[in-house]
Design brief:
The protein contains 19 helices and 2 strands. It is mainly alpha-helical.
């Protein structure tokens, strides 16, 4: 009975939705702009460096964060695209391990380049006499992208398993994840380390909202229902923060995540569906669609690099005599505009240089790829430095170790085989060899990922 609430969806029926591209691009711009307003390093006369988060010190910013905290929306969009990608791969004969291999390669290769370049560049700066605290400030610039990468990758790797549960009992699966979230939140006071397990439960639950959207659940709700979902989720959010069950600041709630992020995700998913027609009209404007199509292929590179570039630029300015306005003054706020423009300008050559690492890994042949043990080992190798950074902080040595671990993971994953559909297995070998062994064409990008 439960599955009747969802329309039947063919695994191969998914089409590229320009609205997903537009929303993802807009969210990415908001993240870059917010970080430009948050980072404000100060060099004291004794040589020590203090990093101020100006927005977090503003009382008015706490309610604004309920609107601007768009991290849950990233996971919702990832749920839409991930489910579509898994269904296409499964239809082509792929397995969950094939999906994990492709996802690891797609996300780890850009991060490997970031860590390697930062480690080499910061060691050179240290040998040239740059103050160690400035080096540590720049090192911290990679911490947040790594946190997001770990959370996003964990959710994505769970898609084959959660998709199976979703297809059998969608509401029960979502309800179980919510129950786990509440249980962890209830015990985090007595067992603080347990709170980090919600890095799995919260983001998988938010990703599950993307599954519902991909299957048309929100599309078949009325406008009244969508508005009601937005109002109810925000009222509940106001209740749990108003009685001090959770902090009202969403930045505090995000690490480790808690129920508040899921409530935001529900509100954002319903809002996205409600604004769908207007967003679709906007996304169909030719010049907007062309620009987003280009930017969508390099979104992970932009996300990974923008904060290290921002922190690096701020750190280098500390070593110069360039006048810097005092934080929170009118001059400081006006200076955020050129800072944003400078970060975008720096991202252009970086994206041109490293963006190709986001391209789909091409299949070498129909031969078998790495075994299951290799895929599992590659995943473990990736999460070791990320977990170390989460619990002990990111250091220069860990940057190098992380780059080495990510490189080892890429080597372990090896070649990418092309899954052969069951119907094609009966074809003669000569006929199969006549077709180039590649993954889906590159124009299927952004929201239809491999």
């Amino acid at each position: 009975m439960e599955r009747e609430a969802f329309p039947a969806v063919s695994p191969t029926a998914a089409q590229r939705d320009p609205v997903i591209d537009l929303v993802r691009f807009t969210c990415l711009l908001l993240v870059v702009a917010a970080h430009c307003m948050m980072v404000s390093p100060v060099l004291h006369k004794d040589g020590t460096v203090e990093t101020r988060n100006v927005l977090m010190e503003q009382a008015w910013f706490t309610p604004v964060l309920w609107v601007l905290m768009i991290v849950p929306l990233f996971f919702v969009l990832g749920g839409v695209t991930g489910l579509q990608s898994w269904r296409r791969l499964r239809t082509a004969g792929g397995t969950g391990f094939d999906f994990a291999q492709l996802r690891l390669l797609r996300l780890v290769r850009p991060a490997m380049a970031l860590l390697a370049v930062m480690w080499g560049g910061l060691w050179i700066a240290l040998l040239l006499g740059v103050h160690p605290q400035v080096i540590q400030l720049m090192t911290a610039g990679a911490a947040m992208p790594l946190w997001f990468l770990a959370a996003y990758l964990t959710a994505q790797l769970s898609i084959p398993l959660l998709a199976r549960f979703h297809e059998r009992a969608p509401l029960l699966t979502f309800g179980a994840l919510v129950a786990f979230i509440i249980a962890v939140d209830s015990l985090r006071g007595a067992i603080p380390v347990l709170a980090f397990t919600n890095m799995i439960f919260v983001w998988c639950a938010v990703q599950q909202l993307g599954f519902f959207k991909a299957d048309g659940f929100f599309e078949h709700r009325s406008r009244t229902w969508l508005v009601g979902a937005i109002i109810c989720s925000n009222l509940l959010l106001g209740l749990v923060t108003g009685v001090a069950v959770y902090p009202g600041n969403m930045v505090v709630n995000i690490n480790p995540p808690n129920l508040c992020l899921l409530l935001l995700g529900i509100s954002q998913t319903a809002t996205l569906q409600l604004l769908g027609p207007g967003l679709r009209w906007l996304a169909d404007v030719r010049w907007i669609r062309a620009g987003i199509a280009v930017a969508g292929r390099r979104s992970m590179t932009v996300y990974l690099w923008h904060l290290p570039l921002l922190v690096g630029m701020a750190g280098l300015l500390l070593l110069t005599d360039v006048p810097r306005p005092v934080a929170e003054t009118a001059e400081w706020w006006w200076a955020r505009i050129p800072v944003f423009i400078a970060v975008v300008a720096l991202l252009v050559p970086v994206t041109m240089l490293f963006g190709r690492l986001e391209d789909r890994p091409m299949a070498a042949s129909h031969a078998r790829g790495p075994g299951r043990a290799a895929v599992v080992t590659a995943a473990v190798v990736v999460f070791i430095p990320v977990a170390d950074a989460a619990f002990n902080g990111l250091t220069l040595a860990l940057l190098g170790g992380g780059a080495a671990c990510f490189a080892l993971s890429v080597l372990l994953l090896g070649r990418v085989p092309t899954p052969v559909p069951p119907a094609a297995e009966a074809e003669p070998a000569e006929a199969r060899q006549a077709t180039p062994a590649t993954l889906p064409a590159h124009d299927l990008r952004a929201n239809l990922e491999p």
